[in-house]
Amino acid sequence: MRYHTPTSFEDASAIAAAATGVTRFLAGGTDVLVQLRSDFVTPDDLIDIKQIAGVRDITRRGDGGWRIGAAVSGAELAEHKALTAEWPGVVEALELIGSTQIQARCTLVGNLCNGSPAADSVPAMIAASASVSVVGPAGEREIAVEDVPTGPGMTSLDAGEVVSAVNLPPRGEGGGDAYLRFIPRTEMDIAVVGAGVSLSRDGESITAARVALGAVAPTVLLVEEAGATLVGSTLDDTALAALAKAAEAACRPISDKRGTVAFRTQVAGVLARRAAKIAYDRAGA
Amino acid sequence: MAFDQEKDEFKVVGTRPDRPDGIDKVTGRARFGADATAPGMLHAVIIRSPHAHARIVKIDTSKAEAAHGVKAVVTRADFAEGLDGENWNILENLMAGERALYDGHAVAAIAATSSLAARDAARMLEVEYEVLPHVTDVDKAMQEGAPVIREGAADGSVPAGMHPNVVRCHDSGHGDPEDGFAEADLVIEERFTTEATHQGYIEPHACLGTLGPDGRGELWCCTQGHWNVQKVCAALLDIETSKLRVTASEIGGGFGGKTAVFIEPVALALSRKANRPVKLVMPRADVFRATGPTASTSMDVKIGMKKDGTITGASGEFRCQGGAFPGAPMEFTAMCAFAPYALKHVHQVGYDVMTNRPKQAAYRAPGSPMAAFAVESVIDELCNRLGLDPIDVRLKNASREGTKANFGPSWDRIGLVETLEAAKEHPHFSAPLAEGAGRGISCGFWFNHAGETAVQLALSEDGTVQLSVGTPDIGGSRASMCMMAAEELGIPYEDVRTTIADTATLGYNEISHGSRVTYASGLATIEAARDTVKKLCKRAAAKWGIDAEAVEWRDGCAIPSGPNAGDFDPMPIKEIARDMGKTGGPIVGHFEATPEGAGVSFATHIVDAEVDRETGATTITRYTVVQDAGKAIHPSYVEGQYQGGAAQGIGWALNEEYVYDDDGRLQNAGFLDYRIPVASDLPMIDTVIVEVPNPGHPYGVRGVGETSICPPLAAIANAVSNAAGVRMQDLPMRPSRILEALKAGS
Q1: For chain B, what is the domain count?
Q2: Contact between A263 and B736 using a beta-carbon 8 Å cutoff
Q3: For residues B417 and B423, what is the distance between their CA atoms, to the nearest angstrom?
Q4: CB contact (8 A) between residue A257 and residue B659
Q5: Which of A108, A138, A168 is the C-terminal boundary of a domain?
Q6: Which chain A residues are closer than 8 Å to B282 by Cβ?
């Protein structure tokens, strides 16, 4: 195993592009180190990106949105008051992961690139219309978060591409987001179902909404039909019922040790409703 | 050795001093199984079957043996031949013979100069398997056509015509339940199932062993009973018992799971072959796959009740699956089932069933929690349908002193009624329930055990005391031993240090199991202290020139009594200790026996639960444990045992289970998907210590470690069923199961 500590994303990308074996990027390491120690994945090249300037910075973008460096931890994100005030759903989704110790290490980018359909922060990022900045041999590009995962453990990133940051759009007036997951325990568990909702209100009426579901398909799903059920509504019971129905209809889960098809489908509808209520209240606050 | 009725005032017993191992444990100074090293030490890995059932066609070790750093490879051929009985079972389990009998069954082991080298070599070991049909479900394993795990494993207790996987049977009771049911106003019969659960100790099994060509060896290991490890290792390696010295490490949880031997003979076999010390630490996945969970069960229980709450008759059939070996604790399941109740007509049958799963091991009151789940659920349903108070009904039918127990003997002095009365008076029982919440009650019973015990108490020259016991401290027993020694000797708690002696230092000590330690090692400590007191009094008497019988021991001093009272100043223990070299030599007290009189123990639990009807999630909102401790030596530790039993019971009832796929492979061999409760899953667990003295112990002690896990499954199931409005008959009550039950019930 070769351990690299590049000081720029261009160098990181070049190392990865030149590598011929198993390659992993290392930021918090909360997935990579576990996989390594459990004998699941033993990388030939381990590329630590933490020496790159700015990877732990959270900065306001010119358009009023946010740029979150690839190595910003859950704890650092949660301590950022302005970002938390604007995107509480994204922050709470990352904060749900693991223990206090894990929170000091885990990152949004790692959670995304690990490719798990049950990743907690991914539905929240998708609902929030987040994108990622990617540096690769062909230069830099920006990809919507929903376009990154392609299947369990797989992403659309090309060989040599590395994610440098997560971008959140401007929140704007009357916006709110929320993320809820179902786990059999209260902590330290993996989502059986996850639901992220982000919406905007004009008075009582919803003007825009995005709903994303986790752990109910091979990738996290952006459920546009579910978002559409909310637009124009005041989140009345009819809208909530339609939301749940649309969410259930989008589910393509499997039955496994963590939950059955029927359970995941029903709970996806329940969580979408509950998350929408929280996002709606936050948007009106 | 009987209860000392005069000993009703204690100075040390009943107080709550700091634990003697506390600083070591919080600073990392305590040495657990994996903390030992030795010069030239090798690291070992065990290679395990990926199949639930397979014939081992061939094991080719040549490439692994030639791999970098490898010093030894062992297979079954490196262990003793010609064993029988349980020794054969243990060997067959820790190193497969002709067949791999479950997913995770060991087939070979490698020792190399680093754990990485050993793991690399493990990938080069070639095992050819012929996959065979398998069965992991207890009911399916009993059906015609089920794959036979081992022909001829059944003993004479099994009725003719049963499947060969049924290997033992228990049948007991009295009266005729059919007569009882005829007298009843309501009879309920239901089937219940529970899944296998693991003890979930945080510390994996670990050991460091050395065995030389001369057949002499040393072993450091994490165990609940090192004399048993010594005996088993000697048999499996065909060496003499006393040539192997075994030292027990600190233990990071056992709960019964470390009463069994899984890896130590393997480390010693590798060491013998390599002539180097070998360290073997089980990865967590191996702990789940290859060390014993408890049995899974399928149970039918039928109970008849009159409108006034009188139980007229009861019967139960308890089918317990204990993996690929005999030993599922079905006799305990059957015997504990109806133990809390005085019944005219009762009959219980248990079956021990083999399947392609790991060999079950003891888990805290083996077999009893499942029985209580089935029986107490039916009683709860009877109470609901007849509109009766669950505690009043249990009081009406409760076993008392003199009651003929369901499995034969008459009860001695027992404390069930006292726990029920305390539960009834507890504010929890009368607290209003939130909308949609449910409350559950259950009783539970465990036998408790005594066992072979030897202790030694040595006086130091400064008057402090070194107490050596042979029972590994799995629940705070060192503190209790220090307290009992201090109580008898009349010295401060801090002046006693208790050490777990190795196998070369004391006589045989049975495993720390059966809730026996505070009872048996405690009784032995008291007797050893009394033996020491006699010797101390004799020294004082010699100095004073009076009869030893005329010396009393009080408050840490020898005092002249009778005709000599007041003739001499009290002689403190420190003075006698200082001079002992000149007055006759070292002063050592000891005691060895197999005490009889471990008092049985009963408990009553009260649980409140809320159910999210949209997701099936359960929240335990309030929990109260009421249990008879006989006499609580260190009440904080007793409360800890009560809380621990309840916490493990909550996990067992709600989320813990062994999940097998269609191939018979374990799907959740890790703490992510084997869900023991985390701290935030639990409410504060309230405790009430009831003290009905055990006549068989000088202070009245009853074991407390196991009874606390007997009522939780039932109490929680009753609370959840009452909250959901649907009777939950299968454990764990995972959210999907509750949603399905709600759907079916609506």
Answers
A1: 2
A2: yes
A3: 10
A4: yes
A5: A168
A6: none
Min Cα–Cα distance to chain B from A193, Å: 11
**End-of-domain residue from the set A120, A143, A168:** A168
Closest-CA distance of chain A to residue B289, Å: 15
| Residue A131: per-residue pLDDT | 98
pLDDT band at B474 (very low <50, low <70, confident <90, very high): very high
Q: Residue A213 is part of a domain; what is its CATH number?
A: 3.30.390.50
Same domain, B454 and B559: yes
The answer to whether the CB of B502 falls within 8 A of the CB of B248 is yes
pLDDT of B488 strictly over 90: yes
Nearest to B475 by CA among B744, B232, B255, B316: B255
Number of domains in chain A: 2
Q: How many Å apart are CA B732 and CA B656, to the nearest integer?
A: 6
Q: For residue A38, which residues of chain B lie inside 8 Å, CB to CB?
A: 285
CA proximity to B536, closest of B467, B568, B490, B498 = B490
Query: Which residue in chain A has the smallest CA separation from B658?
Result: A257
Distance between B196 CA and the closest CA of chain A, angstroms: 15
d(CA A219, CA A213) in angstroms, rounded, equals 9
Average pLDDT (B408-432) is 97
Q: Between helices B390-397 and B416-425, what is the axis angle to 10°? A: 160
The residue range of the domain holding B519 is 22-30+450-593
**ipTM beyond cut 0.90:** yes
Cis peptide before B204 (omega within 30 of 0): no
The pTM of this model reads 0.96
B218-277 pLDDT, tens digit each: 999 999 999 999 999 999 999 999 999 999 999 999 999 999 999 999 999 999 999 999
CATH at residue A88: 3.30.465.10
Name every residue whose Cβ is closer than 8 Å to that of residue B594 and which is 6 or more positions away in sequence.
B450, B451, B452, B453
d(CA A32, CA A25): 8
Instruction: Specify whether B466 is located in the same domain as B492.
Output: yes
Q: What is the CATH number of the domain that holds B525?
A: 3.30.365.10
Model pLDDT for residues A182-193, shown as the tens digit of each residue:
999 999 999 999
- Mark yes or no for CB contact A188/B678 under 8 Å: yes
Q: Which of B569, B593, B617 is the last residue of a domain?
A: B593
Residue B8: band (very low, low, confident or very high) from pLDDT cuts 50, 70, 90: low
Cβ of A185 within 8 Å of Cβ of B739? The answer is: no
Please report whether residue B419 resides in a domain. yes
Choose the closest CB to A184 out of B614, B659, B735.
B735
Tell which residue, B142, B443, B189, has the closest CA to residue B315.
Answer: B189
Q: How many CB pairs under 8 A join A and B?
A: 52
Angle at A218 between CA A37 and CA A30, to 5 degrees: 25
Cβ A13 vs Cβ A140: under 8 Å: no
